[in-house]
Amino acid sequence: MAPSVTHVTGTVAGGVEVRFTQDGIAVCRFRLTETPTQWDATAQKWRDLEPIPYICTAWRDLASNAAESLVDGVSVLVKGRITGVKDDSLYLSIDDLGISLRRRIAYTETSLPSPIAARPYTAPPAPPPAATSQPATGPGGPPAWWEQKRAANWS
Predict the structure, then answer these.
(1) 64, 69, 72, 74: CA torsion to nearest 10
(2) How far apart are CA 132 and CA 143, in angstroms?
(3) Please, what's the b/e burial string for 100-136 (b: 16 or more CB within 10 A of its CB; e: otherwise)?
(4) Cα separation, 92 vs 90, whole angstroms
(5) Residue 7 CB: number of other CB atoms within 10 A?
(6) 3-state SS class at 1
(7) If residue 95 lies in a helix (H) or strand (E), which one and from where to where?
(8) Per residue in 90-118, pLDDT tens?
(9) Which residues, listed in sequence order, are joined to residue 90 by a DSSP beta bridge?
(10) What is the DSSP string of 13-82?
(11) CA-CA distance, 35 to 53, in Å (whole number)?
């Protein structure tokens, strides 16, 4: 009889170890802690139960991706098979793994914000005030035709 598939939600505890077999196949291993909660009717609040430790193993691309993506303290969702119990820990062979979005945002390679989005916004400079032409007569400067003729070298 094949081992049954289980789903676990927990927090990565410690770093992720990655190794390679002689054939170059990636294998990663990490610790996971699940803290189940239970409703306490007398206190009218949720309380944490005893944490359940897991030792998770992933292979091939899943192992490489997990080694690049997971760090200590990240909440994850794991689908796998229980392969053993030893030293008060459950051993899981992982089939699928995802980062929990309950407490964080996760970006994929295709959904990363552009570098322009990370740049601080600065308002464009104000345009210079429009030049006002001086009246042909009166104080304050030469008439408008004077500057035009001068710019054209009086031709």
Answers:
(1) -130
(2) 11
(3) eeeeeeeeeeeeeeeeeeeeeeeeeeeeeeeeeeeee
(4) 6
(5) 9
(6) coil
(7) strand 89-99
(8) 999 999 999 998 887 777 777 776 666 66
(9) 54, 85
(10) EEEEEEEE-TT--EEEEEEEEE--EEEETTTTEEEE---EEEEEEEEHHHHHHHHHH--TT-EEEEEEEE
(11) 9
**11, 102 contact by CB (below 8 A):** no
DSSP structure class, residue 101: -
How far is C-alpha 42 from the chain's CA centre?
39
Segment 17-63, tens digit of pLDDT: 999 999 999 999 999 999 999 999 999 999 999 999 999 999 999 99
Residue pair 31/56 in contact (Cβ under 8 Å)? The answer is yes
Answering whether pTM is above 0.90, one says no
Q: Taking Cα atoms as reference points, which of 106, 82, 78 lies closest to residue 92?
A: 82
92 token code pair:
């899981």
Residue type, 29: R
The CA distance from 15 to 73, in Å, is 9
Residue bearing tokens 């979005």: 101
Look up residue 108 and give its DSSP letter: -
